[in-house]
Amino acid sequence: MKIAQVTPLYEAVPPKLYGGTERVVAHLTDALVDLGHDVTLFASADAETRARLIPVRDQAIRLDPAPLKSDLAAHMTLLSEVLRRADDFDVIHFHTDMVHFPFFARCADKTLTTLHGRLDLKDLPGVYERWPQFGLVSISDDQRRPLPGASWKATVHHGMPGDLYRFSPESAGYLAFLGRISPEKRPDRAIEIATKLNKPLKIAAKVDAADRVYWETVIQPMIDANPLVEFVGEIGDHQKSAFLGGAEALLFPIDWPEPFGLVMIEAMACGTPVVAFRCGSTPEIIEDGATGFLVDTVEQAVAAAGRAHLLDREAIRARFDLRFSATAMARRYLDVYGDLLARRPFAGSALEDSVVPLRPSEDRSFAAGL
């Protein structure tokens, strides 16, 4: 198939440091190429990809040193370039939320939109009611809850290359927190858990401008006052194997409806168990007692982190390989693309050339049965 992947422009593909959506797009794009498909990636010029790259901005927005930038203008240019080439593709796969809907209404039947963020926002229902012709993919079943009537076609969990992170058979005895410093990610809980266990905690995290006050008034004083806690700062992919692989457990003490939580499968790839609060997607990702523990309170988290070392790290890595590899993700998306093509008139020639096994359905969830 001829497939276009359309990514947001906030981070490079893959991101140089923190970033989720663009990292998933990078893994999906390369996996589709490896499976023999003709893939074009619309992204900033600093993208690293095995696909054909159409650069629409000189570099990703967040690390661009220019003091004055327009996110909207950048994405308008992106959509214009995709629209100009729309007839070249069998499938146009958007990862840009809903911003493309007004532009692509005439060819909505050849588009698929994966929603990567939270959906419990006031204005979203009206958008998905107004443009029901756009097929949607959720990244967890839980993500759908605020919009049960939207045009869902599948749930496809994220995946990443099996060789990206090194398996670590033994830990270095510390607990880890990786992600973003924000109230909903609850780094304060991570510090409390580690303190009650008297275990070292390493925090590798990004501090957004929007969370600067929270960092300065809540988290930084907690770190400064606690000799058990080390703040590492923001890290990139090349540093994660050592950081996550050395951890006895990853603490994922969230307090919000997390749509997926990429760091959980990053830890699993290293063989590191995850102690996650039962919130959002975590029950779909973590197999309680096998790849980590699901908890509801800080007290339960303390107990779970204290016995995380008893879990089989090789078995955790094996579950990652089975459920969350980039190839597994790509094959699941190919099924969805096949369904999309099967519903379009005169789609026979594209389907005949495709390696996709076609099993048309109105709605397919790949979370079940794994």
What keyword list fits this structure?
about 375 residues, globular
Structure write-up:
By secondary structure, this protein is α/β, with parallel strands linked by helices. Helices cover 33% and strands 18% of the residues. The protein has helices at residues 21-34, 71-84, 124-130, 187-197, 212-224, 237-245, 262-269, 282-285, 298-306, 313-323, 326-343, 348-352; strands at residues 2-6, 38-44, 52-57, 91-94, 111-115, 135-138, 152-155, 174-180, 201-206, 229-231, 247-252, 274-277, 292-295, 364-365. The strands form 2 sheets. The chain has an 8-stranded parallel β-sheet with strand order 3-2-1-4-5-6-7-14. Strands 10-9-8-11-12-13 form a 6-stranded parallel β-sheet, with helices on both faces. Strand 5 (111-115), helix 3 and strand 6 form a beta-alpha-beta unit. 46% of the residues are buried. Mean pLDDT is 92; it is low at 348-370.
How is the secondary structure organized here?
Layout: E1 2-6, H1 21-34, E2 38-44, E3 52-57, H2 71-84, E4 91-94, E5 111-115, H3 124-130, E6 135-138, E7 152-155, E8 174-180, H4 187-197, E9 201-206, H5 212-224, E10 229-231, H6 237-245, E11 247-252, H7 262-269, E12 274-277, H8 282-285, E13 292-295, H9 298-306, H10 313-323, H11 326-343, H12 348-352, E14 364-365
Parallel strand pairs: 1-2, 1-4, 2-3, 4-5, 5-6, 6-7, 7-14, 8-9, 8-11, 9-10, 11-12, 12-13
Helix pairs in contact: 1-11, 4-9
